[in-house]
Structure formats: C-alpha cells, structure tokens
Amino acid sequence: MTTIILIAVAAGFFLWSLIKSRKKTKESLKIAKGLFISTAIQIVGVLALVSLFLAIIPPELIKKVMGGANEAVSVLWGSLIGTVTIIPAFIAFPLSKQLMEAGAALTAIAAFLTTLTMVGFATFPIEKEYFGTKFTIYRNLFSFFAAIFVALLMGVML
Known about the structure:
Number of helices: 8
Radius of gyration: 21 Å
Oligomer: single chain
Distance between the termini: 37 Å
Shape: elongated
Largest sheet: none
C-alpha cells in the first residue's frame, strides 16, 4: 500500500512539473536517464565481478575459515568476506543461518553481516566517484573497525 501511495505522489509531482514547465521537465528526464544508465552499467559491472569471485571461492572454504578454533581469526575472516561481497539481506540472513549450523562462530557471522552492510569494498569505485576518494576511504575504514567492534561486543553479550 505504501508503494502505491509513493508512486501516486511521484506521479502527482511529475504532472505538476509538466504543468509548470514542460521544457524543464523534459530536460530533467534526459539528465535522469543518462545518470540512470551510467550508474546501472557500473552496478552491473560490480555485481559481475562479485559473482565471479563467489563462483571461484567454494562455500566449504568460507565455512571452514569462519568456524575456526581461534575466534579472533574467525572474526577477521568474517569481516573480510563481508567486506568484499555484495549480496542482498534476504540471501545474507539465511546464508548466515547455514553458516552457523555448519559451525561458524556467532561473532564471525556478526562480523560478516555487519561488514556486508557497512563496508563497500566492491562498490568503492562508484562511491569514490560520487563522494571523493578521501571520504570513501575514511568511511570504509571507520565502518570496518566499527563492524569488528560490534561483532566482538555481540560475542561478549551473547
């Protein structure tokens, strides 16, 4: 229902824009189309690279390194894996359950999920283009260490 309301509001503003200035609306649509195509091409490229990476690394290896005897090493591996992958949450959460059932440490799974959502290694080129290199590096470093802190905190609390 919310989606329908949002579409109706957007359509209303679009019609209002057309009434106010048909010329400016058409120019805006041309600019938006160009930006959409440019961004879509970049995103498809990044997703292709990530898919290739995930196809090369067998799931058994991921389960093995995240469920090791040394919890600190497992957290580090979970963080690194989460940093370089791009998968939607509706896949990440069931995958995390499977990893836990296979023996992965809870802290490693927390690190994986947290870095997956907070750190954008694979999307770095796109983010750098929009926000600048310095900001992107600082944001990703802060997010990486914050994710490790959150994972370790979860290990203490749970």
